[in-house]
Amino acid sequence: MTTITLDKPLTNLQVELLKLFGRDLPEERLLAIRQLLSDYLLDMARDEADKAWNEKGYSAATMKEWLHKNGNA
Known about the structure:
The chain has 73 residues and is mostly helical. It has helices spanning 12-21, 27-55, 60-69.
């Protein structure tokens, strides 16, 4: 058995993941759960990026300008 020493207490997310992954799951279910977590985190990142984009007032014209400045247009 492995012992882990922590400098900080676990977050609520870490505790829930440990509970979930404490079970012996078939590989296909484990991969499905990993995919769900990845999809969730990707959605959160996209939402944050959209929020920042909107707060800064960026548009399709902004993107075209950036591409033109970098010689990609």
